[in-house]
Specification:
The chain is α/β, with parallel strands linked by helices. It has helices at residues 19-22, 30-37, 51-66, 90-97, 114-128, 151-154, 214-236, 253-262, 274-277, 284-294, and strands at 2-11, 15-18, 41-44, 75-79, 104-108, 133-141, 159-169, 179-187, 195-197, 210-212, 245-248, 303-310, 314-321. The strands form 4 sheets. The chain has a 5-stranded mixed beta sheet with strand order 1-7-6-4-5, with helices on both faces. Bound molecules: acetyl coenzyme *A (ACO). The site of acetyl coenzyme *A has 23 residues, from helix 2, helix 6, helix 7 and strand 12.
């Protein structure tokens, strides 16, 4: 059995916040932000627009793209670090919003690596036979946990959601078969304090704000990303030359460029959305996938390499025959 991608979709809040507008709020400039990160603008959720709302829009877009009814979904895994509430899971709000009352829905938290972790989780459930069709969603409203007076972090993030529909299909198991070929997940909690939110129900009973030692994150990112991609190549017997599209977590253009360069992945194979979306954490990969599918770059049969690294640290890769 393989988990085959039936479709994908995404949603971005209407409001666009440009670097120039940010420069009127904190001591920064378009030039500084573009040079260090590649980010030009990001979308910001409206007041009253929650992570679940973004997720439901993205899920509906993915279902429409797959051409299937929501009632055929029996598993929802939603990756987020910005849930609507401490509990219940935002995934059950999405399940309810889609009118689904069967199967299971739960949240998964691995910060920026959340989508890759959610994809791997759903893949394992589908391959075990426990569920048949899954919605894997990454949805975030990071604007709500940013300290808008801290120029070192508030310029980096944006809001949005993306989703893919997976189906368990019997496959002979050849590399040319469609579906998820491999997933690799890693974490190392020694790095917790380099990227975290300084609040939470158990410690402070407040929501808190995102805090980051940017340089420390940067220092570890490329090595961790490339290690877990080499794991994917080794496990699947593929190499950089076999990859049609590289869809990395969109945190920073410099991290993406350096990772692609180190792995000998040609720049024209790299899908980049960080310029328009900023870092949308768990939503960034399905948002980028949706852009590249919609504009005709990613086609059925393409080999697509996903990668993410984020708070924890957590990091992971997935190799998908689209
Ligand atoms: N505008 C202008 N100046 C700024 C800004 C800003 N928005 N932010 C920081 N600066 C200043 C700093 O105050 C500092 O000034 P000083 O030298 O007078 O003290 C100077 O710029 C350099 O600051 P650094 O933090 O050392 O700058 P750096 O070159 O490391 O770039 C950045 C910062 C962009 C955050 C970088 O470290 C980075 O991208 N790190 C990776 C972190 C990342 O991508 N995190 C996303 C989440 S993690 C993930 O998703 C993988």
């Amino acid at each position: 059995i393989r988990s085959v991608v039936l479709g994908c979709g995404s949603y971005l809040p209407q409001r666009v916040l440009t670097n120039a507008e940010l420069a009127t709020k904190v001591d920064t400039s378009d030039e500084w932000i573009v040079q260090r990160t590649g980010i030009r603008e990001r979308h910001i959720a409206a007041e009253g627009e929650f992570t679940s709302h973004l997720a439901i829009h993205a899920a509906n877009a993915a279902l429409a793209h797959a051409g299937i009814d929501a009632q055929s979904i029996d598993l929802i895994v939603l990756a987020t670090s910005t849930p609507d509430h401490t509990f219940p899971a935002t995934a059950v709000a999405v399940q309810n919003g889609l009118g689904i009352t069967h199967g299971a829905a739960f949240d998964l938290q691995a910060v920026c690596s959340g989508f890759v972790f959610a994809l791997a989780t759903a893949d394992n459930f589908l391959r075990s036979g426990a569920f048949k069709r899954a919605l894997v969603i990454g949805a975030e409203t990071f604007s709500r946990i940013l300290d808008w007076t801290d120029r070192g972090t508030c310029v980096l993030f944006g809001d949005g959601a993306g989703a893919v529909v997976l189906e368990a299909q019997e496959q002979p198991g050849k590399p040319s078969d469609r579906g998820i070929l491999t997933t690799h997940l890693r974490s190392d909690g020694r790095h917790q304090s380099k990227l975290y939110v300084d609040g939470g129900p158990s410690s402070t009973r407040t929501v808190g704000y995102l805090r980051m030692e940017g340089r420390e994150v940067f220092k570890h990112a490329v090595g961790m990303i490339t290690d877990v991609i080499v794991d994917a190549f080794n496990a699947s017997g593929t190499s950089a030359d076999d990859i049609n599209w590289f869809v990395p977590h969109q945190a920073n253009k410099r991290i993406i460029d350096a990772s692609a360069h180190k792995l000998h992945i040609a720049p024209e194979k790299v899908v980049l959305t960080v310029d328009r979306h900023g870092n949308t954490s768990a939503a960034s990969i399905p948002l980028a996938l949706s852009v590249a599918v919609a504009d005709g770059r990613i086609k059925s049969g393409d080999l697509v390499l996903l990668e993410a690294m984020g708070g924890g640290f957590t990091w992971g890769s997935a190799l998908v025959r689209w």
